[in-house]
Amino acid sequence: MPDQIKLRVARYRPEVEDKPTFNEYDVPLRKDWSVLDGLNHIKDELDGTLSYRWSCRMGICGSCGASVNGRPKLLCATFLTDYAPGPVRIEPLANFPIIRDLVVELTDFMHKLSAVKPWLIREEEQSVDEGEYLQTPEELADYKQFSMCINCMLCYSACPVYGLDTKFVGPAAIALAQRYNLDSRDEGAGERLTILNQPEGVWDCTFVGECSRACPKGVDPAGAIQRYKVTAATASLKSLLLPWGQQ
Amino acid sequence: MSTSHDIVIVGGGGAGLRAAIAAAEANPRLSIAVVSKVYPMRSHTVSAEGGAAGVIKDDDSLDEHAYDTISGGDWLPDQDAVEAFVVEAPRELLQLEHWGCPWSREPDGHIAVRPFGGMKKMRTWFAADKTGFHMLHTLFQTSLKYPSVVRYDEWHVTRLLVDDGRVCGVVALELMSGRIAAITGKAVILASGGGGRVFPFTTNAAIKTGDGMALAYHAGAPLKDMEFVQYHPTGLPFTGILITEAARAEGGWLINKDGYRYLQDYNLGTPTPKPVLRSMELGPRDRLSQAFVHEVAKGRTIDSPYGPVVHLDLRHLGAKLIDSKLPFVRELCRKYENIDPVRELVPVRPVVHYMMGGVHTDIHGATGLPGLFAAGEVACVSINGANRLGSNSLPELLVFGARAGRAAADYAETAREPGSAIDAQVEDEVRRLQRDFYARERGRERLATIRVEMQKIIEGAAGIYRDGDTLAKAADSLRELRERAASAAIDDSSRTFNTELPSALELVGMVDLAESIVHSALRREESRGAHQRTDFPARDDDRFLAHSLVYRDVDGSPRVEHQPVTITRWPPGERVYGS
Q1: CA nearest B40 in A: which residue?
Q2: pLDDT, tens digit (0-9, with 9 covering 90-100), for B129-154
Q3: Domain with CATH 1.10.1060.10 in chain A
Q4: What ipTM was reported for this prediction?
Q5: Of B470, B472, B471, B468, nearest to B536 (Cα)?
Q6: Of the candidates A6, A138, B61, B119, which lies 20 to 30 Å from A13 by C-alpha distance?
Q7: Topology, domain A4-104
Q8: What architecture is domain A107-245?
Q9: Residue B4's closest CA among B420, B497, B424, B495?
Q10: Contact assignment for B97 to A132 by CB distance below 8 Å
Q11: Are strands A71-74 and B2-4 parallel, antiparallel or unpaired?
């Protein structure tokens, strides 16, 4: 194994350059090192001006999404040795506006996240004095997978539909809506229907499935979207047949 | 530029979001700002794994939770605070359940609990082994319901604004634009977490640089019990990634190079095949990490490229239990160690995990400075004393986050608007950032050089065992390092998402924290909980049944005072484990 590997890192400093360029850095190639360790080596030892986000370095905070050799990855959960002998091309996540270097803008997603009402909706709140809402392990299993999303944006970066039209609500936000819709304690599916059952909601999805392949946490947003299409179609049909009230 | 709210919360993790919701519910007319240097769902609460303690089962009692917490903290916790905490913890956890937290369940649908270290009853609620992740996302998503909560995502707070002794806002740097602005309010709640990154080897995320402690310390609020730093006994050797205590609670064993469950040699009980509460691998973290040091001295550990390790043995638990109760442990071991714990031993070593100390507050989260509140790891109430029990920190940030939110809402209703005196402070701060950071002349040393040196000093002096001579030398070295940290090189002068400038600010604060730790440790001439002095090996209740309070003097040096512990019903006794 060589003891160095070359990282080709996308650079974009809007005050200095009009469009992204690449800088090359040689970093130690170590068995334990993630791509993030390589970037931290650059930042600490070679070039303090490189900007990227990271925090937990254990694949749970969702900060360090970037494109590695053209695929969306978590930098902290992607290892340099898997790319030896290199070079490794590191770019910001595709489909997002670039702020600086590897840092992309997430404002659009943050709006979509709120729009799907990702909180428990009840017709009647039960007081905590009366104890927990009961939920069996089987009921928990119905939505658990969709609750594992870390908002890392890899799915949006992989999604060809979002790439063409950023109005698409998108994989993570729809999966999160489904997380609450499928929760036995929730009664808010009707409220979420209006957002999800619009053209830019689930119907934009062409079921390419790239989102589920990119997801580092096994959430399967594509599955959530397909499942919701059935729900939404049934609800639309019901409102046609029973215009006096949705169930 | 300046924006104005009623309450400004610094930090968007568990404590900050709980405080925001509590304040919004206490008074919907208040405008509440949540200022965080990361998007809130990136906060370090996300990494908590094992669970959250709260009495809920019939065989348990509040007094037992209180006693476990107080004895676990080696009688340094304030007992009035602990009593309030154990009463409110179950209610807070239920509230989170009502907001949608996917707690693991019994077959009949009730909340499931698991054992945890130092706890005599099973009372730790869990969401598999991603409890903090689920709590944080539940809180964040729930917070989106409240229109009065306004977020400042990726804003780095650089100073507190103080008008005539009252804290009334912050100055912050927006990372995306480089804009520096005042965010004023009648009350400020610090909820920015601990500072594990002061140490070289830690479970803590990169953002855990103790910023809130440094902000309070600079504004004149004392830091309490800073010498008490928790080493978690089971971190992965290279990364420091946490392997949760739940792995032992579910039946995992700690073994040395001979395959021997060595904890039996350290007054922690006798080994049994099934886990026994408050015994062996379910002893408290301070005692387990200390036992590791003795095993190293006896030559009974295993050598690794990253120093001596012991093994965590989960093989006898089987794939089914590991996949249902500890799936994240398996994922982390496979990803970061290329090990499958179903079939292989997991190498682990003690790793800095948590600061028991922090900004001194009362049981409502109020600090000594009017208008300034604090909750969560940044604060020291203290319920954790000399050693926090595993699974007490998550309920702590809920209970005291909510308390601080309500207290700040009360305070804000009657407090005066910030006066015009702060305008000058804002201008000062903008000038300081411009001159000392953006326009810093080429510095001599890299930030990383100073950071590594600080970490080496603090680990050498204030690790699991300490002594007076080493601490005194460290105090001298850190004083010198404080100067160097203020003039280190900053390559990046860009206004757009400059990440080096915040690192430079964090480093200055971290050196202050390191000094506060070393000075508090030097003055505490006894051994208690996580603070073990080889030159003073016994607990000394006559002199040190007291909290350390460290103030920053005008010249920047730390000054340590002591203040008595509040005892209500549990007089100091011996910590007994293994029975």
Answers
A1: A61
A2: 999 999 999 999 999 999 999 999 99
A3: 107-245
A4: 0.97
A5: B468
A6: A6
A7: Ubiquitin-like (UB roll) (3.10.20)
A8: Orthogonal Bundle (1.10)
A9: B420
A10: yes
A11: unpaired
